[in-house]
Write a structure and sequence with these properties.
There is one protein chain. This protein is an alpha/beta fold and 213 residues long. It has helices at 12-23, 37-47, 63-73, 88-97, 109-120, 128-138, 141-148, 154-164, 169-176, 180-194, 199-208; strands at residues 3-8, 28-34, 51-55, 78-83, 101-104, 125-126. It folds into two domains: 3-127, Rossmann fold; 139-208, Winged helix-like DNA-binding domain superfamily/Winged helix DNA-binding domain (Arc Repressor Mutant, subunit A, Orthogonal Bundle), CATH 1.10.10.10. A six-stranded parallel sheet has the order 2-1-3-4-5-6, with helices on both faces. Strand 1 (3-8), helix 1 and strand 2 (28-34) form a beta-alpha-beta unit. It is globular.
Amino acid sequence: MAIRILIADDHGVMRAGLQALLSDEPSVEVIGEACSGEEVLQLSLALQPDIVLLDIGMAGTDGIETTRRLNSMFPEVKVLILSVYEEEHMLREAIRAGASGYIVKRAAGDELINALQAVSNGYMYIHPSVTRLLISNLSPAQEYKKNALELLTPRELEVMGFIIRGFSSRQIAEKLVISPRTVEGHRASLLGKLGLKNRVELLEFAEKNGLIE
């Protein structure tokens, strides 16, 4: 079943662009568009989306307050924040408000799909550039990433092992007897937790930390 998405942005051009981007992806279905926080709440009641793809900087009731209200009124609806801000404090505000993910507007289409799939599967997704800000404020990046391995679930560690060995999502799905979509969700989640963008960075990380024999 496709993930039901409500797009919320106060710029019509941005909504149209997101609609076009998602229209060719069979795993998602855009069921509505909203241009204000108030409309988001109204349409969430009427349409019952799985995920609200929510602009953080909407005029009037902004994305943070809208997320807070959504989380209170419709706890089953997940929120993926869409933002131009690559700032740590904005991420923290969004998470405190109840967002399940944070992705920047310059992200490529595939990353947006991966983020939506991760959030749909119950994982937190944070754009790598924002994750790096958190890392830089906590400890040396590589050491933090190494410690972040402890945050991975057993299934994410399994998926990571197959990715490192060059398996495709479909091959991993066959090995673990799960769907390719679920594999992509695990992939997006583990990359987000480690602050990595793609398989190349994952391989570099694995080599530096002795994960490749």
